[in-house]
Amino acid sequence: MLPGVALLDAALAELAVDGGLRITDWRLAAAKFHTFVRPGEPLILHSEVRTDGSIQFAIHRDATLVASGVLQPTRGPDAPDA
Predict the structure, then answer these.
(1) What does the pLDDT average to over 26-38?
(2) Which CATH number do you get for residue 20?
(3) Residue 82 lies in a domain
(4) For 50-74, b where at least 16 C-beta lie within 10 A, e where not — what string?
(5) Residue 37: inside a domain
(6) Taking residues 33-37, what's their average pLDDT?
(7) Do residues 78 and 52 touch, judged by C-beta distance below 8 A?
(8) Structural domain includes residue 79
(9) Taking the model in full, what pTM does it have?
(10) Intra-chain end-to-end CA distance of the chain, in Å
């Protein structure tokens, strides 16, 4: 089985490349692992910027949701109060 941290790492790397994000400007606000993934299984990452500036993401294997979460900005106008 693929560890959840490996799924998160791959998702963050993909969001950084596709979305031009600097990962150091974001924090993981929530993550949920719904089912296991085996190494080598093809996965699809979906992401959406929400109205509050956070990014909601979901990782699917075919039609099955395997992981989901939310990233929040760590700085800037959309960053939560620390």
Answers:
(1) 95
(2) 3.10.129.10
(3) no
(4) eeeebbebbbbbeeeebbbbbbbbe
(5) yes
(6) 95
(7) yes
(8) no
(9) 0.84
(10) 36
- pLDDT score at 45: 96
Q: Cα-flanking dihedrals φ and ψ of residue 18, to 5°? A: -75, -35
Number of domains in the chain: 1
pLDDT at 30: 96
Dump pLDDT digits (tens) for 50-77. Answer: 999 999 999 999 999 999 999 999 876 5
Q: What is the dihedral of CA 3, 50, 21, 9, to 10 degrees?
A: 0
What is the per-residue pLDDT for 72? 94
* Structural domain includes residue 56: yes
Residue with tokens 């620390």: 82
Print the domain residue range for 44. 4-73
Contact at 8 Å (CB) between 22 and 15? no
